[in-house]
């Protein structure tokens, strides 16, 4: 495991303001992000570009990795009329050399920043410190333009990321806490399986009684609920909202002859099948996905 050094160096956040966009009804927010590096003769080049469109209450998670540094950031906005407050939590690591045993040493920095700008304005972020500073990391910065559009009913994020330089690794993704999810559940018993049930469920809303039919004479009714995950114990995971798009399926047997114990299976809203063992050897297979826009 690499040794870690912690210092108090903070990245600089500078603002280049464009003319404000017209005020609009809250809807979707779009982040246009450019990752920029200098080249010879004072020129610059865009090494990656991303466009993330998401509901206004969602967040943008960004990861930037090179040979000597890593940045993890979670950005969000709060509308204030014709202006918007862009804020974020950042975790930064800079390679600081090697120990006497040859292990890599890292400087680690956690910090928060916020700035107010007009809708359509651009924030310039130096994640590893401003150029030519004493504690500067790689000469790279981010230009983030935030705009807003009036859209009703569409809750799913749209993501597009293009990397032009293989020396850096850049990912950007929308982080949305699901208020609803399409839950597909199937009951397995031995070599038999029920027909899949597709449920449109509200997170932390009321449960539903679901009857699964296996063959002509076998049926089982279960109480199914969709819940938010518990609080994470890892401060970094909490700061970067790594479990923001995670939901949990809670299944209980309402039959009083059973013990009434709840069985829980959590997962991201990514349409990946997961199994949940129940009592009596039964198994629930479930997938979580985004519901159809209303």
| Radius of gyration over all CA atoms, rounded | 24 Å
Unreliable runs: 1-25
Assign the structural class, choosing from mainly alpha, mainly beta, alpha/beta, alpha+beta, or little secondary structure.
Answer: mainly beta
Q: What percentage of the residues does DSSP assign to strands (E)?
A: over 45%
Distance between the termini: 48 Å
Task: Please count the helical segments.
Answer: 1
Largest beta-sheet details? 6 strands, mixed
Query: What do the pLDDT scores average to?
Result: 80
Number of strands: 21
Shape: elongated
Strand order of the largest sheet: 1-8-7-6-5-12
Q: What string, H for helix and E for strand, traces the elements in order?
A: EEEEEEEEEEEEEEEEEHEEEE
Notable characteristics:
2 domains, 6-stranded antiparallel β-sheet, 294 residues, elongated, single chain, disordered N terminus, 2% helix, mainly beta, 57% strand
How would you describe this structure to a colleague?
There is one protein chain. With 294 residues, the protein is mostly beta strands. It folds into two domains: 3-175, no CATH class; 180-289, no CATH class. 2% of the residues lie in helices and 57% in strands. The protein has one helix and 21 strands. The strands form four sheets. Strands 1-8-7-6-5-12 form a six-stranded mixed beta sheet, with no helix packed on it. The chain has a six-stranded antiparallel beta sheet with strand order 2-9-10-3-4-11, with no helix packed on it. A hairpin with a 2-residue loop joins strand 13 (180-189) and strand 14 (192-193). It is elongated, with a radius of gyration of 24 Å. The termini are far apart.
């Amino acid at each position: 495991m690499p040794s870690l050094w912690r210092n108090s160096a903070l990245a600089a956040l500078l603002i280049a303001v464009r003319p404000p966009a017209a005020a609009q009804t809250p809807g979707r927010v779009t982040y246009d992000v450019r990752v920029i590096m200098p080249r010879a003769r004072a020129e610059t080049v865009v090494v990656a570009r991303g466009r993330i469109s998401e509901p206004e209450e969602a967040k943008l998670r960004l990861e930037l990795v090179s040979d000597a540094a890593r940045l993890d950031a979670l950005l969000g906005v709060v509308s204030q009329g014709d202006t918007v407050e862009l804020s974020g939590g950042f975790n930064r690591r800079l390679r600081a050399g090697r120990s006497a045993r040859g292990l890599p040493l890292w400087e680690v920095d956690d910090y928060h920043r916020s700035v107010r700008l007009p809708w359509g304005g651009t924030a310039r972020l130096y994640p590893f410190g401003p150029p030519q500073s004493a504690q500067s990391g790689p000469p790279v910065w981010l230009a983030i333009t935030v705009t807003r559009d009036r859209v009703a009913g569409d809750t799913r994020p749209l993501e597009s990321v293009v990397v032009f330089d293989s020396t850096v690794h850049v990912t950007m993704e929308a982080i949305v806490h699901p208020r609803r999810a399409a839950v597909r559940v199937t009951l397995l018993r031995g070599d038999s399986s029920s027909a899949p049930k597709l449920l449109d469920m509200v997170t932390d809303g009321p449960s539903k009684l679901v009857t699964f039919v296996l063959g002509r004479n076998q049926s089982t009714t279960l109480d199914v609920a969709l819940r938010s995950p518990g609080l994470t114990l890892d401060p970094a995971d909490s700061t970067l909202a790594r479990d923001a798009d995670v939901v949990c399926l809670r299944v209980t047997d309402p039959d009083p002859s059973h013990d009434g114990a709840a069985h829980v299976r959590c997962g991201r809203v990514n349409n990946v099948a997961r199994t949940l063992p129940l009592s009596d050897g039964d198994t629930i297979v479930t997938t979580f996905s985004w519901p159809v826009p209303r």
